[in-house]
Amino acid sequence: MPWWFWLVVAFVLFAGYVTATSNRLDRLHSRLDATRAALDAQLLRRAAVTLEIAASGLLDPATSVLLASAGHEARAASGEDADREVVESRLTVALRAAFDDPDEAQTLAAEPAGLALLAELEAATTKVLLARRFSNDAVTATLAIRRHRLVRWLRLAGRVAPPIFFEIDDAPPAHLSVGDAWSGADSSGNAEAAEIVPDVD
Amino acid sequence: MKVGLVCPYTWDVPGGVQAHVHDLALALIGLGHDVSVITPADDDAALPSYIVSTGRAVPVPYNGAVARMAFGPLSARRVRRWLRDGDFDVVHVHEPTTPSLSLLATWSFDGPLVATFHTSVQRARTLAAAYPILQTALEKISARIAVSQAARRTLVEHLGGDAVMIPNGVSVATFADVEPFPGWPGDGGALGFLGRFEEARKGLPVLLAAFEKLAVQRRGLRLLIAGPGDPDEVRRALPADVFDRVVLLGQVSDIDKARMLASVDLYVAPNIGGESFGIVLLEAMAVGTPVLASDLEAFRAVLDGGRSGRLFTTGDADDLAVKAAELLDDPDARTALAALGRATARSYDWSTVARDIVRVYETVAVDAPDAVTRRGPYGRR
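The joint structure predicted for all components is written out below.
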């Protein structure tokens, strides 16, 4: 075989590899978009449920005001706001302050409308936790492939900005579960919740 | 929601993953979801309507054990057709690192993918060799679930990334109010063991050694063993008069499994390692039989650190004999453990576990169809 044959073979293999890598990156970027959109949706839902609980009149006025202001700030900070992590963490803390006390959850659960809201809040806080984990997992995978030499040299990532982790406190309140959720079966509700979805390093 | 479940191991052989997929499918159907399961299976005719078979599975050695799996172009084609016909909102694969249907489905599907990792024994070298191929497929998975901390740690160490933890489920209703076999447990007391006992990691020899010790002092004590394995192995391990007090049931049906668990005073799990979860412990607890298990991390987690079941030093027959004797002599302690065990099992009921899994589906399937690209070399649509 002439030397140029091998050159062509090498080039074709290389081109194939670059294409495959570029496709991987492309797919990761869409997974990133999808998981980030899901996280955004779950955060908005959590804020909305919080506002609804605050407006329901089923809780005492002080708790209602606390939840309303935290929920409002979180909803206002949606989008690409840089403060969003802080604001969402504040909402988490406010929810914990309100519902770590089992009595408060019981007050709400006593009313049929309150029970529905409580169940919705429990679902929303869990889903925030899940969505954030999945989104950060996608960030980890994307950053790993973007660090490849080939990807950097050929600028396969194009002008897409490198993804950033979304870091908030999302441990749900201890006494939200109305059912016998296995996560709540333990008396150490918060520690257990942190264990379901431990932090990304 | 239209959910596609992928089971990598053949449906004909009982196993933890198969049982998990089966129970999950039923729980999801119970919640009103539209479920289809794809799995290797020998006999199409005997399968319920929600299961699609890809045909016979081939026994192959992988990751230190022989498992019956399906791969090759025919399986790949069948998986692709199932994905196309199913038009799923979410596809949930199990054990995607095994070279079988789950990996094929991960490879072919362009949509929200959820994966559950069951094992905690992964040979580092197997994974290192397969890593570049697996990596491309695993990158497509939007949500990863581990059934235990041990499984999660395996995943983090060998594959990177992270997973949420949702435990295995147990159908509490199936195990509540079952009748013991006639004449069991009997006045002399009875111990129980369930599992594929020829596998060394199940630890039956530890239990047999302890049973021999206990049998000398307790003339009426019996041992009930269920699960596939060679009876001669048990015979050889014990003196003839002790072996006479061992009853071997062989492989049992689901109903007999529950009855077997109800027929003993104490369920013993002497496993010496490689256990990721310990579903049988939960099943024994659901029946209301106290559990004595080796001090493995997975068992400690299920038994709440030794609160809802007792623990003994892993592999130590003497310690097992001592702890078993304590419980056999103390009916009150057994009653207390049975009550705690029942409560623990209830918190792992499939209704709860399935609800958590559905939340994962809902999290990844939000607006997903628009956000997922439908191109690339692997996206034959």
